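Methods — Computational structure assignment.
A single polypeptide chain was analysed. Its primary sequence is given first, followed by the predicted tertiary structure written as structure tokens.
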Amino acid sequence: QHHVLAALAPAGDDSQHDLPDELTPREAEVLALIADGLTNAEIAERLVVSSATVKSHINHIFAKVDVRDRAQAVVYAYANGLAG
């Protein structure tokens, strides 16, 4: 699986090339905040965007990384070095 290869890739300088599954830097940021346990409302406040924008980012993330819920997204974030 490509997820395993992404997890083994060396940590980079946060450039877009280092993000797995074509995640954008903002999507990676949202995923990290989900992994930190923030709610959609808290993420919206932190990023100064609307809750609808956060939901849109989350929908894109779930589709790109093939997860169905926040728990799976958190596991993915840790497995791919996007949380910590």
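Note: Residues 51-65 form the longest helix (15 residues).
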